[in-house]
Design brief:
Largest sheet: 6 strands, mixed
Number of helices: 5
Oligomer: single chain
Strand order of the largest sheet: 18-19-21-22-26-29
Number of strands: 30
Helix content: 10-25%
Strand content: 35-45%
CATH topology of the largest domain: Chondroitinase Ac, Chain A, domain 3
Shape: elongated
CATH architecture of the largest domain: Sandwich
Length: about 475
């Protein structure tokens, strides 16, 4: 029966593991749910189907140790199962609370799964091993008139003195200069900062004046998540760990526009998506600032795909702007025909703010140092707007126009070249002066041709008449005399 239960349990476990093999998860466990003061136990976190993890375990109550802070990823970017363990020691009676926070990410879908959970451990005082004292009766009195009671027995055995030290290791307050924190729970706080922030100054106090606080002060931070641990140590030595997660952005975003303008960060690179909409109100802010802003759309390797340089001092119209850049056009066939099927790149955009410049990655078509001509497309016409623009770092930069469609090529398109004004005027004058003469010549030729046709008709009729007369007047050789 026992063997069957084991087999059934294994099958159920295998089914559950198989059903969740593609979902990242994590759980917290303790080796004991109740201990005595001075005993040790362990806390563990097991994660499954995870290619990256950022997990934290904090402890509160009469305990030392019991902290887990693990943030890493697999070298091959594949899912794995891991277990993280920390040892704990109960330092006083009461309840120990262990809290799990953080997230795990599966390579199968790339989604972060946020973790939470807690376990409690009850700590009691270890009972004494002496139940009746050392002496049960002592001497009963050997000398008459001497000691009549002998040594009186003890009733409580040997007792250890009770400690009066405080076990309060709770947090009083925590803050970061210049920012407001987001509280997750009593042991976890979050903060987001902009890309230009290199350090934060952390302040914290304990609820008990006798407790000590460590981990405060200036902390340097880098892009992404930074975990700062503040430790509250009670008078009795019990520690409480407070996790502050500071996330620094990997660049500036449109949501940081007010900050950029307030800090006067000119030429700031602002990360946008492939189809980010810049509102008219943001365009107005750029205009009022008079500063220059660079909107950057990059791939995962942070290589520029397309971008816009917006000079606030040149903006006149304040309207919404879509940053989308397409390397194609609905007018492709006509553009290729107008260019005599030259080799190049077709680009389509939305109408940008006044005076904007367009940046494009063209490294797939051209090499660094190549000189590119830029033509704007108008109905049935290609107009040159840029001549011999050098490709640098795989990119070119050109002035945007209202046409919103461009053709970039190393070829020179003759039909798109504009004649000098003087030559055009001379050609126009020649056409005007020769017009009447040509008309006279054409008219004369038409009159001569008409006269020739008339003469030919008259001659043909005359010949026909002569032939008929000659046939009538000739005698019949077979007639009788």
């Amino acid at each position: 029966m026992k063997k069957n239960q084991i087999i059934l349990t294994s099958l159920v476990a295998a089914f559950l593991l198989g059903a969740n093999s593609f979902a990242a998860s994590g759980n917290i466990y303790v080796s004991k749910s109740s201990v005595y003061v001075g005993d040790t136990f362990s806390v563990s976190v097991s994660i499954t189907s995870s290619a990256a993890w950022n997990i934290h375990v904090t402890a509160s109550g009469p305990v030392s140790g019991c902290t887990i802070n693990a943030a890493d990823a697999t070298a091959d970017a594949k899912d794995t199962n891991k277990t993280f363990t920390s040892s704990c020691k109960a330092t006083g009676t009461g309840t120990i609370t262990l809290s799990l926070s953080g997230d795990v990410t599966s390579a199968s879908n790339g989604n972060a799964v946020y973790l939470s959970g807690s376990r409690t451990v009850t700590v009691t005082k270890k009972p004494s091993s002496n139940t009746g004292g050392n002496n049960t009766g002592g001497n009963t009195g050997s000398n008459t008139g001497g000691n009549t009671g002998g040594n009186k027995p003890t009733t409580g055995g040997n007792k250890k003195p009770t400690s009066n030290k405080s076990t309060n290791n709770k947090l009083g307050s925590i803050s970061v200069d210049g920012y407001s924190l987001t509280k997750v729970n009593d042991n976890n706080y979050n903060l987001k900062v902009t890309h230009d922030i290199e350090s934060v100054n952390v302040k914290a106090t304990a609820a008990d004046a006798k407790a000590k606080v460590s981990g405060t002060g200036k902390h340097n931070i880098k892009d992404g998540k930074n975990t700062i641990v503040v430790t509250i140590t009670s008078e009795s030595g019990a520690k409480n760990y407070i996790n502050l997660t500071v996330t620094r952005k990997d660049g500036f975003y449109l949501e940081d526009l007010d900050y950029i303008i307030a800090k006067k960060i000119n030429n700031a690179d602002i990360i946008v998506g492939g189809d980010t909409k810049v509102s008219s109100s943001d365009i107005a802010k750029m205009k009022d600032s008079g500063m220059t802003f660079k909107l950057i759309y990059s791939n995962q390797s942070k290589r520029l795909i397309s971008g816009w340089i917006i000079d606030g001092s040149k903006i006149e119209k304040q309207k919404d702007f879509n940053t989308t850049v397409s390397f194609d056009s609905e007018y492709r066939k006509e553009i290729l025909k107008l260019s005599n099927y030259a080799d190049g790149i077709i680009v389509s955009t939305h109408t940008p703010p006044d005076g904007a410049k367009l940046r494009l990655y063209v490294g797939d078509k051209f090499e660094n140092g190549d000189l590119v001509n830029v033509y704007s497309y108008l109905p049935k016409e290609l107009k040159k707007i840029g001549k011999k623009i050098e490709v640098r770092d795989g990119t070119v930069e050109l002035d945007a126009t209202d046409s919103n469609t461009y053709f970039l090529t190393m070829s020179s398109i003759a039909s798109a070249e504009t004649k000098p004004k003087e030559v055009a005027e001379i050609d126009s004058q020649k056409e005007d002066n020769n017009g009447p003469f040509i008309a006279i010549v054409v008219g004369a030729l038409a009159a001569i041709l008409l006269s020739v046709i008339v003469v030919l008709i008259i001659v043909a009729k005359k010949k026909k008449k002569q032939t008929e007369v000659s046939e009538i007047s000739q005698p019949d050789p077979f007639a009788s005399s």
